[in-house]
Design brief:
3-stranded mixed sheet; 19 helices; mainly alpha
Amino acid sequence: MRSEVVRLYEEVVKSAQQVRYLGASLGLLAWDQETYMPKGSVQRRAKQVATLSALIHKINVEELYPKVEQLIDKDLGDEIKNRNIRMLYRALSKQVKLPESFVVTFARTTTEAQCAWEKAKKENNFPLFAPYLEKIVELNREKAEIYGYEDTPYDALLDLFEPDARSRQLDKLFAELKIEIKSLFEAIQQSEQIDDSFLYRYYDKQKQMLFCTHLAKNLQFDLEQGRIDTSVHPFTMGIAPEDVRITTRINEEDITMSVFSTVHEVGHALYEQGLNREHFGLPIAEPCSLGIHESQSRLWENNIARSKAFWEFYFPILHSYFPEVLNDITPEQMYRAVNKVIPNLIRISSDELTYHFHIILRYELERALIEGELKVKELPEAWNAKVKEYLGLDVPSDSQGVLQDIHWSHGTIGYFPTYSLGSFYAAQFLHYASLELGDLDDYIREGNFAPIHQWLKENVYRYGALYTPEELCVKICGEPLNVRYFLQYISKKLSDVYQLTFHY
């Protein structure tokens, strides 16, 4: 009996790795589509993606799931193996409910939708994208009904990105968050505003790329097992831990765009490169959740790269790339400028505080779409009203409004809340890291990011998806996710930046 269990587990490993290698091929196709693919090949690419997606689904349903099902109640004599099986069963139990025809349709629709979104954004033409989004919303509703849910179909989609998260929890969390960040925002509005005009001088594109490459390497991104390119929307693609690709976005009149896009994606990439390599294809070698993944990007981008200690070290290096442009600027000015709080129409260009209003409005809108309270044709008007309500801004065009994000064209409805959850996890994780490592600013000020990276490898990366996000948080911190760590962190930093007495 024992030998049969061992044999079955070995077959599970073989099938899981086969699925992962096929998934890596899909990842390469996706990376190519967003970087170098000829625009005229979209229809053929859609068929390629649909074919691979169908093959993966077939292996999952016909080969992998039946074997995992046989092992779910067995003790494999090893806790990691037991957890691998439990987490595989959790994920596959959803996938087997989807008909192959649905998987093919979803893959083909989203591949075509991405190209339609790019064209619509470029031409400021929402009606061009609307039919694709209507189909994506319809498919996501269908998926939610197939998976099942308790309170709202949106929860079935949210669970795909953040296991066990529920909208009733997000409603409570976001309600508290809105009150606290609004209070801090109002205090900042009464303060003297920061001059950040020097960030928007002319910064040569090639020099920006050289600086960002230097920065990525120093933050521990292994360029022997990764690469950096540019794209319309920055992203990270983990083909395998040995092949992690990131893109950044460069604007010669905005140095922050390339710097913080690069650091954000490096955070994702470090997580991907730090995953277990021996057990490729199993949960221990997969990311825990999108919230945990975003915690790594937000941690490096905001908690570290927007800190005073970071610019005390990095400003002289940035100055060496742009001596004439930054000759009249100090590290202190740089630190304050990159933490300036002012509402922005564009999410990825937003400050660290009002960014969460962007996430809340997207969460509210996509949930309304899924629950049938909002039609796709009504989305631009609803979007503009939410931006006015939360940010006090008028939206001049759909390209700067409802068309600015790529996510819905990918079919990823339920993803946006993970950005805010990531910020909360990041602050909490770093709080506990400091209890072990001491003052993290001491390392950052010296440009020594290895101790922080090592702590994350030991406490986050190596566990992969063996635990749910809440289980992982409790394992690291001894307590579940608590938004007060983020509120304490952000109020302390912005009180320093704006010379306030505000404290959470």
